[in-house]
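Q: Joint fold for the lines below.
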Amino acid sequence: MTEKGLVLVVEDERPIADLVRLYLAREGFGVHVEHDGTAGLAAARRVRPVAAILDIALPGLEGTEICRRMRADGDWTPVIFLTARDDEVDRILGLELGADDYVTKPFSPRELVARVKALLRRAAGPDQGERVRTLGPLTLDPGRRLVTVEGAPLSLTPTEFDLLGHLLGRPGRVFTREELLASVWGYASHAGTRTVDVHVAQVRAKLGGAAGLIRTVRGVGYTADV
Amino acid sequence: MTEKGLVLVVEDERPIADLVRLYLAREGFGVHVEHDGTAGLAAARRVRPVAAILDIALPGLEGTEICRRMRADGDWTPVIFLTARDDEVDRILGLELGADDYVTKPFSPRELVARVKALLRRAAGPDQGERVRTLGPLTLDPGRRLVTVEGAPLSLTPTEFDLLGHLLGRPGRVFTREELLASVWGYASHAGTRTVDVHVAQVRAKLGGAAGLIRTVRGVGYTADV
DNA sequence: GAATTCTTGTCGGCGCGATGTCGAGACCAC
DNA sequence: GTGGTCTCGACATCGCGCCGACAAGAATTC
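A: Joint structure:
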């Protein structure tokens, strides 16, 4: 549920909070919602979110104050402010709050999600998922969605590519079928574990001579041999 | 920590210096801080910064004087001045200090970081976005907003041009529809991902024989084939 | 070493989701 | 208003994933 990390949302208007929660959850984020400023600050300190979305006008403690105290704690979690009025924008940008972005109400949930993602991309630097992986004659380039065996490109379907990529992400580590289903297919998948076998077989077929790199660990799962 | 190079900060007010240091460090810059003018000039000569942020009012040696002496040394490192009063701005702009930018207090650290980056981009030569891109029979010139196929000019709409330009910016790299929407259409776009498909189709139609250069990566997005 | 049982490999077809394509309507600039 | 552009809906098409079923192979028991 929190594969992409937890996003803290502090917003006192329930309908808006629910909307934001829905859209973020749909994108695979875990969401922690608080409805007043004091609880929001406590949550920020407790749940270690990867990003925080703070309404400015809040009961208890203003969003700006939550951010200020987080920064004082040395917490540089990316923060996006929600603001209803344009003149509040000046307060965000003008002061040294360490706000990373802001969105004015009414806003599009799609836009908000896009900004959260952009922020995390920026904060994370070069994405781990973008790393080119090499194992023997095999190379896998996530950015180009390209797999080569001894330089010759392979044509893999999306599932095959993700599956191979996940195995190559930690060579030597044995993944159970359940783990692979959860990571590659996603937690919402209803597929049975046998489906994993079928795709492993197809990847092996396409790997040709390098098929041996994916080893069956009987009774457990699969691994990319080092 | 210094992957992006070292930025020299000369600022006698500790809180401000610390704030600037934090923000620059967070962006991957190395930071060297000095608190008086004399030490600042010595540091400029010693640490070879990629950019310098100089307060104007400094004990020992004014920021303007540091800059002047750097220039006299033949050191044309980009310099940003921090100034508390507007009337100081005139002194910066009026004299041939070789200042590249200035920021008035109170300032937003975000803004300062943005200016440092902009300065380095400028100093690094022609903007990446201005680069003429060529791929097989295709050339795309952002400056002239011109695309040609084997020398013959094409008439593209703004969206079509930006879309093609973005794909050609990193040939081989696969972009998801969401990435393209965010980059080409912008954050605030409410367009659905299918809109991307339509525009890709249009671009392909206009590309004629070179249409194959834009390849669909099923389940992922699009790429410009190398 | 043979029989049994469980696990894994393999094949083929069905259903669904993703993409290509066309056209209508909205919107904007002139 | 007029022309150009963007966005969306609708439909057709195609590829892919999923499952069921059986074959093959490995571990366990005797």
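Q: Anything notable?
A: The helical segments of chain B are 14-26, 37-47, 63-72, 86-94, 109-123, 158-169, 177-185, 194-207. Residues 109-123 of chain B form the longest helix (15 residues).
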